[in-house]
Amino acid sequence: MKKDKVKKQAVEQEQPVAEAQPETVEAEEPMEPEVSAEAPAEESAQEATIDQWREALELAVKQRDDYLDSLRRTQADFQNFKRRNQTSRADGYQEGICETVTAMLPVIDNLERALAAAPQEDPLSSGVQMTLKLMLESLKPFGFEEVPALGEDFDPEKHNAVMREAGEEPGKVLEVFQKGYKVRDKIIRYAMVKVSVEA
User: Fold this and answer.
1) Phi, psi at residue 135, to the nearest 5°?
2) Which secondary structure element, helix H or strand E, spans residue 80, and what is its range?
3) SS3 (DSSP) at 115
4) Backbone phi, then psi, for 190, in 5-degree steps?
5) Which residues have a Cβ under 8 Å from the Cβ of 169 and sit 6 or more positions away?
6) 28 part of a folded domain
7) Which of 2, 31, 182, 197 is the most buried (most CB within 10 A)?
C-alpha cells in the first residue's frame, strides 16, 4: 500500500498543474477629473495673474525703451557739447591771438615809419630794424603774415581801396598806404591801397 501511495504522489507531481488561470484584474475606468466649483475660479485667477504679469512686462519693456531712448539722446547731446566746446575753445584761442596781434600792429607801423624816416647809416636805425625783424619773426609761428598788395590784383576781401587813379592795367594796386596783415586765413587788417581804373 505504501507503494501505491508513493506512486500516486509521483503521478500527481508529474501531471502538469492545472492550467493556472490568469488572475483577472478588473480594468479600472479612467478617472475623470473631479469638476468642482473651485476649478473655474482657479483658472480665472491664473489668467488674471498671467494678464497682470504681461501688463507688468509690457510696462517694463516700455520703460526700458524710454530709458534707452533718453540715454541715446543724452549721449548725442554730450557728444555735441564736446564738439561745440572744442570748436569754441579753438575759436577762442584763435580770436585771442588775433586780438593780441592786432594790438601790436600800431607798434609795427611805428617801427616801420621810424625806419623810413631815419638815415640808413644811423646806428639807431639798425637797432630799430633788428627790433622790427625780431617782432615779425616772433609772430610768424601764430600764422601772422603780411597781405601782399603792391602790384597785385585788387581783392576787396584783402584790400581797402581808398583812392583810384587812371592806369594802364585796371584793377591793379598802384600804391600801399598802410600794410594789411592776416593771422592764418583771417584778415586782421585790410591793406589801404590806391587802385588803377580805366581812363
Assistant:
1) -65, -45
2) helix 38-117
3) helix
4) -75, 145
5) 196
6) no
7) 182
Comparing CA positions, the residue from 156, 173, 151, 155 lying closest to residue 164 is 173
pLDDT in tens, the chain (199 residues): 555 555 555 555 555 544 445 455 555 555 555 545 566 777 888 888 898 999 999 999 999 999 999 999 999 999 999 999 999 998 888 899 999 999 999 999 999 998 888 887 888 888 889 999 999 999 999 999 999 888 888 888 889 889 888 878 888 899 899 999 999 889 999 999 999 888 7
Last residue of a domain, one of 97, 123, 142: 142
CATH number of the domain encompassing residue 112 = 3.90.20.20
Closest among 156, 154, 180 to 165, alpha carbons compared: 154
Residue 158 in 3-state DSSP?
Answer: coil
Residues 64 and 136 in one domain: yes
**Grid cell of 128 as nine digits:** 630799430
Q: Is 161 helix (H, G, I), strand (E, B) or coil?
A: strand
Question: Cell digits for 2?
Answer: 505504501
From the list 157, 156, 191, the residue with the least C-alpha distance to 175 is 191
Q: Are 122 and 174 members of one domain?
A: no
B/e letters for 139-178, b = 16+ CB within 10 Å, e = fewer, are beeeebeebebeebebeeebbbeeeeeeeeeeebbbebeb
**Burial status of residue 187 (CB atoms within 10 A of its CB: 0-12, 13-18, 19 or more):** middle
